[in-house]
Each structure stands twice: as structure tokens, then as C-alpha cells.
Automatic annotation (TrEMBL):
Organism listed in the record: Litoreibacter ponti
Limits of the Lipopolysaccharide assembly protein A domain: 25-94
Residue intervals passing through the bilayer: 48-71
GO cellular component terms listed in the entry, alphabetical order: plasma membrane
Protein name, UniProt field: Putative integral membrane protein
Length: 119
């Protein structure tokens, strides 16, 4: 399975290198339309190779997707956190009840009762 992962990563890397080699031409990226840039006094444009724009768009898309998903799953994380707190509180309560139930018993029997699974 480890080799399949390495093979997949190698194929992705080769594909990215081929895309970069095929798209080395310079393109002009304008941050604002010409009419709006005129109000600022300078045109906000940059000359970059096309593959940089493609890779930046992929990375930005992934980041937006990750953030979107993180916000979408907030309710699931909150519910899991509440259930974990409830489980810990119930475990403490069971431990206290076992301790109270085993008062006055032989220590060996109390240890066996503590280690017995709940029914």
C-alpha cells in the first residue's frame, strides 16, 4: 500500500511538472479593471508564468474548500465534544459509585469488582 501511495505521488508530480513545462508563457494578471485602477493612479497588474497562476488557483481553491468544510463540520465537532464531556463525567460517576459500593469489602474483591466490565 505504501508503494501505491508513492506511485500516485510520483504520477501527480510528473503531471504537475508537465503542466508547468507546457505553460511557461508569461501572462498579465490585472487585480482591478482598468477603469478602477485609474482611480488609484497605478495599474495593479503583474506578469507571471501561466503555470504559477494555475497552481495558485488550485491552492486557493483547496484552502477555500478546507475552510468551508471546517465551518460546515462545526456542529459535528461541538456535538462530539459534548458527548466526550458527558462520557468522562459518567465514567467519573461510575468510578465513584463503585468506590462507594466497595467500602468495607475485602481489598482484593474490591479490585476485582473495579476491573470487571460493566453489564
Amino acid at each position: 500500500m505504501k508503494y501505491l501511495r508513492y506511485l500516485f505521488l510520483a504520477l501527480v508530480g510528473i503531471c504537475l511538472i508537465l503542466v508547468a513545462l507546457a505553460n511557461r508563457g508569461m501572462v498579465t494578471i490585472k487585480v482591478l479593471p482598468s477603469e478602477m485602477a485609474a482611480y488609484l493612479g497605478q495599474p495593479l497588474s503583474y506578469e507571471l508564468p501561466l503555470f504559477v497562476i494555475i497552481f495558485a488557483a488550485i491552492v486557493i481553491g483547496l484552502l477555500i474548500g478546507f475552510v468551508w468544510e471546517w465551518f460546515r463540520e462545526h456542529k459535528h465537532r461541538a456535538e462530539a465534544r459534548a458527548q466526550r464531556r458527558e462520557k468522562e463525567q459518567l465514567a467519573r460517576e461510575v468510578k465513584g459509585l463503585k468506590r462507594k459500593n466497595n467500602e468495607g469489602k475485602d481489598e482484593v474483591l474490591a479490585l476485582l469488582d473495579d476491573s470487571a466490565p460493566a453489564r
